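Notes from the pairing session

We agreed to fold both candidates in a single pass and log them together. This is the raw record for the first candidate, unedited. Please don't reformat it; downstream parsing expects exactly this layout.

Candidate A
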Amino acid sequence: MTSKPSTRKRSPTVTRRYGGLDAAERRRERQRKLVDAGLEVFGTRGYHLASVRDICAEAGLTERYFYESFKTVGELFDAVYADLRSQLQQRIMSAVLHQGIRASNAMNLGEGALRAWYMFLQDDPRAARIMLIDAVSVSENGMRGAEAAINEIAGMYRTFVSMLYPDLEKSGYDMDLVIAGLTGTAIYIAKHWVRAGFKQTLDQVVQHNLAIYKSMAAAYQPAEAVAAPKSASRKPKA
């Protein structure tokens, strides 16, 4: 007589906890350590001098844990950049919301956003190096990340300019070109400031950037001012 196969159910796999963390939580913790280590190594030595060994030594992890989360050093760089980009977004948004409550005009609101941008870079020179220098030379993904961050900054400037000069395009100016110029200005001012070791004060940098926005007022004419000469030129019928 043949015996019937056992139908006993297997007990569910139990995930062991160490230090109060399960396997998934420990993996996330290791990944966080690698991202923090990447910020330190990339931000002080530069991407092109960074190695898996350097990053793991900084994180206090063996190399096998690096490849548990990332396939390459470039993939880790993308994760570090994305983390910095998220922090920058939060910093600028908080500044805009805070300034918006107190701001009496659009120029003050814009100043708060610009100050948050420059202060973010000054507070952590490692972030400045990664976002302004290495990001555009690392990989295609890095360039896409940098482009996305630039577009976000450009969107902020577009809102700012629209509030300051709502009839700018009616005055004959192309908004896209204006925003491209203003965004490039902020980025190149930041690069110069970082490379000079933050020689100028934060207030000086912000005020120099704001001067460009203020100078636009000389060329700007509200829609009603543009329409006025046309109506004035019409001679009354006899």
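Candidate B (folded immediately after A)
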Amino acid sequence: MELPKFVPMRPKEPKGPEYASRFLGLCKDNDWVLECKYDGVRCMMHYQNGEVRLLCQRESYFSGLSEVEARVKKVVDLTNVGSLVLDCELVSFGSNNLPDYDLLLNGQGRRSLVVFDLLYAGEQDFSSVRFMQRKFTLSEIYEKLLLTGGREILRLAEAYWGAEAKLEAYVKVRRERREGVLFKHKKSVYNDTVLPWWKIVNPDYKGVLRQRALNFVRLTKQRP
């Protein structure tokens, strides 16, 4: 049986005067969970019949995907999870243990998949399951992956509940000049149109983003 194809969920982003009010409202509302946004490339990890495929955006610009796939396969093969589809971010971590997009673009750093959502496991489609149940099941699967040596190649995205914890997480993201955060409703399903994800970009990240865009253009001009 072929695994179902999932369209990656696209978060909404508040603009202008809505930015601050939306952010504070999501922090105060206990029905919304904050996840840290990693600076990498969005991808779907498909595992079926002992084979791993990473379906990435702009994958032709990133070398070494087969090496990442082989490392993931080695870990997942030792579990008994069956078929698996995970929504991830392909990330390179620098010596400071922070994500670095430039390292990823140049095939450097410690590459890992940061996993933040579960879409399929065993024979069950989780795309219509509520977020908190997906998160709980994903945590159980991740514990099995840790037992088979998955800590370096697979990381679980940090999630925060409660207004104080969410605000502290956002302050940390700004201090580390990371891309931003995502808010997800506890009762939302994947690709929910009524309860969409919200992406809050770190204002301090824009200068970093501009420089990385220039680096990306420079690198692609050098490639055939």
